[in-house]
Design a protein that fits this description.
The structure holds 2 protein chains of 2 kinds. Helix content of chain A is 73%, strand content 1%. Chain A is mainly α. Chain A has one domain. Chain B is 73% helix and 3% strand. In chain B, the strands form 2 sheets. Chain B has a two-stranded antiparallel ribbon with strand order 1-2. In chain B, strands 4-5 form a two-stranded antiparallel ribbon. In chain B, helix 15 packs antiparallel against helix 16 and helix 17 packs antiparallel against helix 22. Chain B starts with a helix and ends in a 5-residue tail after the last helix. Classes of the chains: A mainly alpha, B mainly alpha.
Chain lengths: 286, 632
């Protein structure tokens, strides 16, 4: 494990994440024939949020967001320091649960709805990401991110099904349509702002920063498939993100049942079959 | 006196006292004292055997064996009498068959004479003894206050508390006997005792539903016992030994049939699909009974036996089938838990799911899997007893077991709410106990069986959903302030606090638990052991520190922010109400999602039962083929 990389993540991820979101908004605007905001707009937004008054429904709610931000950063540090992939996934779940609890604690209809849907999304997401970890373990013999990233074989060739499956559920984590069920940047009247409805001011800013951390972490997962060549990896990450943007702008939102069923089907078909083949190849002596 | 013999006999002695003393005050005093003695004795056992690995005790005598046989005969007569009285014929048939095999075996083949070391103590029995001694006696202490309230609130139920406490304490004795016995016939004897104890406890209220469920529990457990006695019969007639340590040393191919039968018995007792209905039905009993059945006794007897025989399951075809039964049960039971709003049923299904995970580990049988299974047993026992007792306390105060009625407990009953939150966190959140074990499970499974890994991967996503929404209900700050005034019994609160501390303590000290208990056992059996990497331990403890310190930041956040009512579609309305169409004001209530159409109990149960029955049939087919000499 190398804590230096973790430290770089701690400081660099919000900057990189903010820029990615900025580019995201710019490209999305262009896809919709708008000019779009400046690339640095997310930073302006967050700085402005920190100057606003903090309004709460219940006084405990902001605590949960603080925990969410802290644990999300910690998760990223674990990942970029090269820690155990399964532990990273569990830590990410822990962080997310805190956000959901914050939404519950406000006890408002909109944030409640967002919280329940966020949990459904987590349930949709978790099997595939765990299967990805299993696939990487089978391919490299280690659960440690440091060993997986250092693998010289192109993992993408061994894990094509898992990569496609992960692409599918990444949309959930990036909060993009068709999976923007629980919180969204676009207006959805029955949702308002989902989990984030009752948060304001610096707390909302905190959620935004956590999202930057999360985006970089998620893209880090994509990197692992192409660890054999950093240049290819970065290209792959850019293409992945562009694909997500394209899907975001062309697909209507799913209902929760379809979101859950389709993610699980993808995990079962693409993920499990890939794992079975790999397992038979490496462990079953085929 | 040998501490093992003391731990087995003393609870029975205490039980007799509780049975004959009519006055509640004196009975309670005796109950407390004896529970504390049991607790102390089990800790003394730990103290005295901290560094030893395995010890055997030569205690056999013909008189003891005779006494056991006579007791078994009496139990059979009692069961037959009850079955006839309530016109339940399945248990009657089963007990007749079983007794016939048992008595034929005991009277014609005096095998027990060969065994000298009837009792033994190793790290696994030590862990089990600690769970029974500490958690079991805490539940007993809790139950005195609970049962008094129970009878105040349920006047219609006849007060049979002396019988209740008699059976509760006897249960502990039976469990001690089960985990200390090296003689399979002795294990069988205590196994029967736990079955009959749970029968009496589930049927405590004597209502129609209670009796039905008690008989269902009896029938399914007798089915397991029948398999158990057949296993013993097979061992005896094929010249095998009756000693546990000898059986584990025998040729795998020879003992596979009896071990598969015992595995089947384990599945029934630990309420795996398709036998799970008895544990869900057992919910009709007073809550301390559920706590006892789910955490430290009964179901743990089933998984204890499976974990004991794990080395024989390792790499065998029946082992694969057994582990798949466990894995499928984990997935299905977790799914059903989503659709339940009754807190006790959610807990029941989560118990079944966790036991499934343990059974899967036992079926896999590698050293890593056994390591994980032992941790699952420890953490589950502590957190689950805490959860049941908290739910029991809340139920008596708010008059409901429904999770949606627990909204805002964090301000209504802050003390118990915190205990519940710790308990729930202990069940599913990193870096608490169960998650450490689940992590170890995943690591153990991926090398052996990727299908099991898949089952756990899907199941763990589900667990997050149903626990987190429960947590959310508890911490949702209610709009209207309504504080539950009734005071909570000090003793009940003390028990909850101790269990909460144990939940947290077990998580902090898990590297030590691993080093001093779990690793020596695994090392003794397999010659190798699983360990946690230094880095991972550091990460876990770091996360743990974060989770423990974070709540203190509440002190800061509590003061911050201007308070406004929740957003109600930009239409101003009074707290707890909303203005609907045409200016109608309505009461606001929020209920959790239960996703009935996807995760309905009846639907999932049907799927699970079909798969698991098929797997069990395959398990026996493969065992039979193996016996016939077909290489598998």
């Amino acid at each position: 494990m190398n804590l230096l990389y973790g430290l770089v993540y701690l400081i660099g991820a919000p900057i990189l994440g903010g820029i990615i979101i900025g580019l995201d908004r710019k490209i999305t605007a262009r896809m919709q024939s708008r000019v779009g905001p400046p690339v640095l707009q997310p930073f302006y937004d967050v700085l402005k949020l920190f100057e606003k008054e903090n309004i709460v429904v219940t006084r405990s709610q902001n605590f949960f967001v603080f925990a969410y931000l802290l644990l999300m950063a910690l998760t990223g540090i674990m990942f970029f320091s090269g820690g155990d992939l399964l532990l990273v996934i569990f830590a990410m779940t822990l962080a997310e649960v805190f956000l959901v609890l914050g939404a519950y604690s406000a006890n408002s209809p909109y944030s409640f709805l967002g919280a329940e849907r966020e949990l459904i999304q987590m349930m949709a997401f978790e099997p595939m990401i765990l299967l990805s970890a299993a696939g990487m373990y089978l391919a490299t013999g280690s659960f440690f991110v440091s060993s997986i990233a250092a693998a010289t074989t192109p993992l993408i060739l061994l894990l094509p099904g898992i990569f496609l499956g992960l692409l599918y559920v990444l949309t959930i984590k990036l909060r993009k349509s068709p999976f923007d069920l629980s919180a969204t940047q676009h207006a959805h009247q029955e949702l308002v702002q989902g989990v984030t409805t009752e948060f304001s001011g610096s707390t909302l800013g905190g959620i935004e920063i956590a999202r930057w951390y999360e985006t970089v972490l998620i893209l880090g997962f994509v990197y692992l498939f192409f660890g054999f060549n950093p240049l290819v990896a970065v290209t792959a990450i850019i293409l992945t993100y562009l694909l997500q943007l394209f899907v975001d702008n062309t697909y209507p939102r799913f209902k929760w049942a379809l979101a859950l069923k389709s993610s699980w089907t993808v995990a079962l078909v693409l993920g499990m079959i890939n794992i079975l083949v790999l397992w038979l190849y490496f462990k079953g002596g085929l | 006196m040998n501490p093992l013999v003391f731990l087995i006999l003393f609870p029975f002695l205490a039980a007799l006292f509780l049975l004959v003393i009519p006055r509640d005050k004196i009975r309670r005093a005796i109950g407390y004292i004896t529970a504390i003695i049991i607790l102390g004795a089990s800790i003394y056992l730990l103290y005295g055997n901290f560094s030893s690995t395995v010890q055997y005790f030569d205690l056999g005598s013909d008189i003891v064996n005779r006494a056991m046989l006579i007791t078994e005969g009496l139990i059979a007569i009692y069961i037959a009498y009850m079955s006839l009285k309530f016109r339940k014929y399945y248990p009657l048939v089963l007990i007749v068959l079983q007794s016939a095999v048992l008595f034929y075996f005991e009277l014609t083949m005096p095998y027990q004479a060969e065994i000298l070391n009837n009792l033994f103590l190793d790290k696994l029995s030590l862990i089990m003894a600690l769970i029974i001694g500490v958690i079991g006696s805490l539940i007993c202490i809790y139950s005195f206050g609970y049962m008094r309230e129970f009878h105040e609130q349920h006047r219609e139920v006849k007060d049979r508390r002396s019988v209740f406490f008699f059976v509760m304490y006897a249960f502990l004795g039976a469990m001690f006997g089960l985990v200390f016995s090296n003689n399979v016939l002795w294990i069988y004897f205590f196994w029967e005792l736990t079955t009959i104890c749970s029968f009496v406890l589930i049927g405590y209220t004597k209502t129609g539903e209670a009796m039905n469920n008690a008989f269902r529990a009896l029938t399914l457990n007798l089915l397991g016992s029948l398999a158990f006695i057949l296993a013993i019969f097979y061992l005896g007639t094929s010249g095998g030994s009756m000693a546990l340590d000898q059986i584990l040393l025998m040729d795998k191919a020879v003992v596979l049939i009896p071990v598969a039968l015992i595995g089947f018995a384990g599945l029934t007792k630990s309420a795996q699909l398709p036998f799970s209905s008895w544990l869900v039905g057992a919910m009709v009993a007073p809550t301390p009974v559920s706590a006892l059945l789910h955490s430290s006794t009964m179901v743990k007897a089933g998984v204890y036996l499976m974990v004991r025989f794990a080395p024989i399951f390792e790499g065998s075809a029946p082992g694969v089938a057994l582990s798949l039964v466990g894995g499928v049960t984990f997935l299905i039971a977790s799914g059903i838990a989503i659709s339940q709003s009754n807190a006790k049923k959610v807990l029941a299904y989560s118990t079944i799911a966790t036991l499934g995970l343990i059974a899967a580990c036992a079926g896999v049988g590698t050293y890593e899997a056994v390591w994980a299974a032992m941790f699952l047993i420890i953490f589950h026992a502590i957190a689950k007893s805490l959860m049941f007792l908290s739910v029991g306390t809340v139920e008596h105060r708010i008059g409901s077991k429904d999770i949606d009625d627990m909204e805002g407990l964090v301000t209504r009953m802050p003390g118990v709410a915190v205990m519940m939150l710790i308990g729930i966190a202990g069940m599913f959140l990193a870096p608490f106990g169960m998650l450490i074990s689940k992590w170890a499970t995943l690591r153990a499974f991926i090398d052996i069986n990727p299908v099991l890994f898949g089952l756990v991967a899907f199941g763990s996503g589900i667990t997050v959903f149903f626990w987190a929404k429960w947590m959310g209900k508890i911490i949702a700050v209610p709009r209207a302030k309504e504080i539950v005034r009734e005071k909570i019994n000090r003793d009940e609160m003390a028990v909850l606090a101790v269990l909460a501390i144990l939940t947290v303590g077990a998580c902090v000290s898990f590297p030590l638990v691993s080093h001093y208990f779990v690793e020596p056992y695994v090392l003794g059996i397999y010659g190798v052991t699983a360990q946690l990497g230094q880095d991972n331990i550091m990460i876990m403890l770091l996360m743990f520190a974060a989770v423990l310190v974070l709540p203190f930041s509440m002190l800061y956040f509590r003061k911050k922010g201007k308070q406004l009512p929740a957003y109600m579609g930009a239409r101003p309305s009074a707290a707890g109400r909303f203005s609907g169409t045409a200016g109608v004001e309505k009461e606001l209530s929020l209920n959790n999602y239960y996703l009935e159409r996807l995760f309905g109990e009846a639907k999932l149960m049907k799927i699970g039962v079909v798969i698991c029955v098929a797997l069990i049939v395959i398990m026996f087919l493969l065992t039979g083929l193996n016996y016939a000499g077909v290489p598998i």
